[in-house]
Amino acid sequence: MKTALIILAKAPAPGLSKTRLMPALGAAGAAKLAQRLLDHTIETALQTKDFAHLELCVTPDLNHQAFVQHRTALKFRAPFFAWTLQSDGDLGARMQQAFERVLEHCDAAVMIGTDAPAITATQLHHAALDLTQHDAVFVPALDGGYALIGLKRMIPTLFTDMPWSTSEVMQTTSRRLAALGSSWQTYPAVHDIDEPDDLQHLPKGWVA
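User: That's the sequence. What structure does it adopt?
Assistant: Structure tokens below.
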């Protein structure tokens, strides 16, 4: 089965990324952490052998200065790593557009952000494997959302009128899947790094 891995990423620039961490880290510190999270996520993706298609789906601009280093490095290390631009709209609209585009030429797709450094290459492997048996797979986030979603077919209702950034996201998603008669697999929940209280869950030494 041809499976894709999509990484949704925002340019790690001061005042643009990880703004909810600015009270604790400042604009520059939050951007520095966003850069490290992005680096870590890319390295995790490159450890996998399960995906026929890898891409970074970015905002606000493919040529943003914050991405120049990554594009240059990946051009030599992983020239197969595609770069795409996120669509307009809320998070749900951007996720839906990316899934729809990729599922036109892949049998399944796994999507992650850069906010959950606890996601490993092993978890990505299991997600790709379990999509051969299920319509969807998830790594829930302990804040009530999810840090990974994988789909074998497009399910638009998972992305419309969703209470994003609330504790209801995973519960609402599960109810909608059940109503459709879909099968899904979930894995142990992980921490998203979004708020100052989440910094304690970073790997040791990530924040000075």
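Residues 3-198 form a domain with the Spore Coat Polysaccharide Biosynthesis Protein SpsA; Chain A fold (CATH 3.90.550.10).
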